[in-house]
């Protein structure tokens, strides 16, 4: 890209007010082609809102947007695209009835012949190099409905890269990606920067910011909180910028006073891996980390344990009692609960209020003769709001109005209220800020020390090592090995995961 083509962009004094919150309060931010700016802040700080202003998706109430030296009064999504601004949204919304190429080139389909038929082959040919560059293991012709969350994320990134991009906005692009995919994405970011593209990078994984950002901009409560220059970007400085204080004692595993075996699987065969058997034990009082690469079968195991998918053989036992397979109610009755990875489709009712969502699974405990006690509902929801620091002014507003990370906290609160015997958490801190992460770890520890068995699926290596009493590593549908606390290192885990 020639110097003249590089973008120069300034947001000046941007304000956005919602009826229930001031999302942005006179925020300013500038970026030039060839630099990577990390945008950090707690859940609800205003990061996504600021990026939506930049993408033309929402109009600010006040402030100015200056692109290449000219003020742009009405930035629409089409105008943003014409200026070379491409966006990978935090919330993924793929078109399930299209294939990958159809999603990537949506609205820019390639046509041929007098009738303008869509040229599938040419579209696939155009999209393939983008997928290769990202290290995706799916095809342009794969139906979008078959993609995992991680793959959907890669597809969205391919879509942004397929445009004539001068400014790339990445809003939590790696929240579902594992180590190798993340590394590849960071390499792509570096290559784009070298080409003169400007990149705005939003993430709660601070190590990534440290690795790739030239400058860091912090938001706090909708206001500019300060900036860090290249030399000043480190974890502690970023945490201070975001929350205004240090977070001490981040990772502490539970006090290990191991109790009875709560979960035992005997030769369990899941639908995804019917030819391999899983034998796993989790005791009361322990947090077992479940590590492995994407596709190792961890989510499938969780789904089978919770009765979502039928099993192909073997047995699940809770406290020595067999649990009927393939039934969620039976799993819940046995004391199992699952905090799912995909909060949008499985964890939340977006149009329902925070209080209703939190109370849904434990309604039985606060309903008398079929009537829900609204007062009790609000009380308990309020308890979880403060416990998890959920940023929501009103408990009775729909959860769709909450920021992404705050929605994730609502999913957690929903299941923690049940006092389960076995709690399975699938990527529990995806998209959650550092302060809340520490709080989630404390909650998990409390559950374990209170006698629950905790099984935590996580792709965040630091987290797996930091909070687990033992780690089970999965590979191709089987348990490749179990590591005790003293043997936990990134290397020992990866060696088992890769085989
Ligand atoms: N459609 C909406 N209606 C009402 N309030 C909203 C809406 N969208 C966002 N908000 C509020 O604006 C504030 C900023 O939200 P935003 O999504 O920008 O946060 P964020 O920094 O991206 O957080 P996260 O790290 O959780 O993604 C929050 O208080 C949020 O509840
Ligand atoms: Mg956000």
Task: Give the structure's gist in a few sentences.
With 499 residues, the chain is of the alpha/beta class. It has 18 helices and 24 strands.
Give the topology:
Elements: E1 8-18, E2 21-32, E3 36-40, H1 47-54, E4 62-67, E5 70-71, H2 77-82, E6 85-88, H3 100-104, E7 111-112, E8 117-118, H4 120-134, H5 149-161, E9 167-171, H6 179-194, E10 198-202, H7 206-212, E11 215-220, E12 223-229, H8 235-243, E13 261-268, E14 278-283, E15 287-291, H9 298-305, E16 315-318, E17 321-322, H10 328-333, E18 336-339, H11 343-347, H12 354-359, H13 363-366, E19 367-368, E20 371-372, H14 374-387, H15 404-416, E21 422-426, H16 434-449, E22 453-457, H17 461-467, E23 470-475, E24 478-484, H18 490-498
Parallel strand pairs: 3-10, 3-11, 6-9, 9-10, 15-22, 15-23, 18-21, 21-22
Antiparallel strand pairs: 1-2, 1-4, 4-5, 7-8, 11-12, 13-14, 13-16, 16-17, 19-20, 23-24
Bound molecules: adenosine-5'-triphosphate (ATP) and magnesium ion.
Magnesium ion binds next to α1.
């Amino acid at each position: 890209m020639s110097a003249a083509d590089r973008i120069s962009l300034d947001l000046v004094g941007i304000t956005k007010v919602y009826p229930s919150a001031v999302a942005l309060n006179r925020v300013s931010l500038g970026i030039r082609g060839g630099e990577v700016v990390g945008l950090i802040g707690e859940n609800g700080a205003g990061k996504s809102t600021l990026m939506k202003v930049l993408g033309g998706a929402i109009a600010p109430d006040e402030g100015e947007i200056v692109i290449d030296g000219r003020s742009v009064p009405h930035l629409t999504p089409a105008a943003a695209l014409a200026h070379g601004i491409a966006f990978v949204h935090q919330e993924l919304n793929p078109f399930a009835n299209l294939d990958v190429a159809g999603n990537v080139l949506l609205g820019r389909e390639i046509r041929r012949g007098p009738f303008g038929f869509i040229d599938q082959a040419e579209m696939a040919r155009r999209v393939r190099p983008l997928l290769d560059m990202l290290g995706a293991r799916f095809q342009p012709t794969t139906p979008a409905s078959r993609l995992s969350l991680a793959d959907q994320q890669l597809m969205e990134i391919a879509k942004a890269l397929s445009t004539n991009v001068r400014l790339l906005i990445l809003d939590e692009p790696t929240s579902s990606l594992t180590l190798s995919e993340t590394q590849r994405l960071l390499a792509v970011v570096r290559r784009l920067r070298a080409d003169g593209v400007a990149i705005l990078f939003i993430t709660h994984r601070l190590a990534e910011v440290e690795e790739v950002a030239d400058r860091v901009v912090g938001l706090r409560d909708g206001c500019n909180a300060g900036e860090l220059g290249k030399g000043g970007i480190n974890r502690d400085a970023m945490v201070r910028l975001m929350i205004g204080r240090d977070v001490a004692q981040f990772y502490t595993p539970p006090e290990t006073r191991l109790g009875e075996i709560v979960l035992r699987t005997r030769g369990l065969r899941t639908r995804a891996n019917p030819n391999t058997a899983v034998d796993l034990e989790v005791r009361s009082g322990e947090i077992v980390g479940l590590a492995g690469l994407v596709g190792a079968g961890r989510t499938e195991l969780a789904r089978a344990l919770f009765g979502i998918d039928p099993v192909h053989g073997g047995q699940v036992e809770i406290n020595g009692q067999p649990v009927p397979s393939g039934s969620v109610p039976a799993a819940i009755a046995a004391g199992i609960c699952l905090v799912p990875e995909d909060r949008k489709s499985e964890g939340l009712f977006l149009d329902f209020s925070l209080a209703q969502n939190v109370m849904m699974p434990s309604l039985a405990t606060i309903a008398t003769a079929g009537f829900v006690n609204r007062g009790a509902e609000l009380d308990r929801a309020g308890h979880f709001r403060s416990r998890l620091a959920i940023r929501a002014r009103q408990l009775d507003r729909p959860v769709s109005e909450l920021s992404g990370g705050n929605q994730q906290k609502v999913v957690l609160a929903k299941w923690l209220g049940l006092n389960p015997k076995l709690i399975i958490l699938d990527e529990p801190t995806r998209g959650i800020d550092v302060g809340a992460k520490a709080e989630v770890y404390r909650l998990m520890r409390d559950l374990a020390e209170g006698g629950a068995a905790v099984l935590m699926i996580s792709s965040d290596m630091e987290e797996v090592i930091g909070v687990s009493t033992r780690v089970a590593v999965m590979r191709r549908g089987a348990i490749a090995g179990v590591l005790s606390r003293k043997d936990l290192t990134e290397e020992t885990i990866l060696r088992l995961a890769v085989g």
